[in-house]
Amino acid sequence: MTRPAHDPEYIPALRYRFLTRLYDPVVALTTREREFKGRLIDEVTESRGRILDLGCGTGTLTIELAKRRWGCEVHGLDGDPEALGIARRKAERADVEIIFHEGLAQELPLPSSHFDVVVSSLVFHHLSTDVKRQALERVADVLVPGGRLLLVDWGRPHGPFMRAAFVAVQLLDGFATTTDNVRGRLPGLMAEAGLVAIRRIERWRAPLGTIELYEASAP
Q1: Where are the beta strands (DSSP E) in the chain?
Q2: Does some domain include residue 3?
Q3: pLDDT band at residue 1, thresholds of 50, 70 and 90?
Q4: Which end of the chain is less congested by CB atoms within 10 angstroms, N or C?
Q5: What pLDDT is stored for residue 2 in this prediction?
Q6: Span 206-216, mean pLDDT?
Q7: Closest C-alpha to 34, from 210, 208, 206, 209
């Protein structure tokens, strides 16, 4: 998210506000969501303390994290109040405790050295290169020393077929914001933001392209 949702130029996750309520089924159908979110959650299972879902959207991942009940304090942040409203209602139905915040990734209005883990799912391909850098710098700031970022998003395609399929995502979300992803630039942007120990954990072939899960740490 790059602008507050009340800004007339704000672009929701599926570009049009009337599609926000369709976000969950669209993501489930096009991204192998169950597999990559399950793998991401597995990576968090040993963590304690505070967890932030950056760009939590409608709260699917945030709620699954809270359901594990590891004694962690789970937070979700998003710039879209409509998506946050859906997330809060889903959390209430699931009977889980989550602290939700309205805000933008590049501003991340939360204290320094506050979170043990930050997770982010399918957020960064919505951000321009400059905003990606700003958001990653804020992530490095809000993590405790040695804290972990787990970031899953579209990445460099497996081959020509996956590259061709990804054009559908670019037509919806914009070529300018998705180019870093398709060219495999996310690890370099993490390093520029001061994050260390960057590694790709896994990648998946999805109907519209390649999904990659990365880990990085705060120094």
Answers
A1: 50-54, 73-78, 99-102, 115-121, 143-154, 196-206, 209-217
A2: no
A3: very low
A4: C
A5: 36
A6: 94
A7: 206
Q: What phi, psi does 126 have (nearest 5°)?
A: -90, -5
- Domain containing 22 equals 17-217
Do residues 37 and 121 make contact, with C-beta atoms less than 8 angstroms apart?
yes
Any domain includes 148:
yes
Q: How far apart are CA 59 and CA 20, in angstroms?
A: 12
Total domains in the chain come to 1
Burial (CB count <10 Å: 0-12, 13-18, 19+), residue 133? middle
Q: What is the pLDDT of residues 129-176, one digit of tens each?
A: 999 999 999 999 999 999 999 999 999 999 999 999 999 989 988 999
- Does residue 189 lie in a domain region? yes
- CB burial of residue 70 (10 Å; 0-12, 13-18, 19+): middle
Strand pairing class (143-154; 115-121): parallel
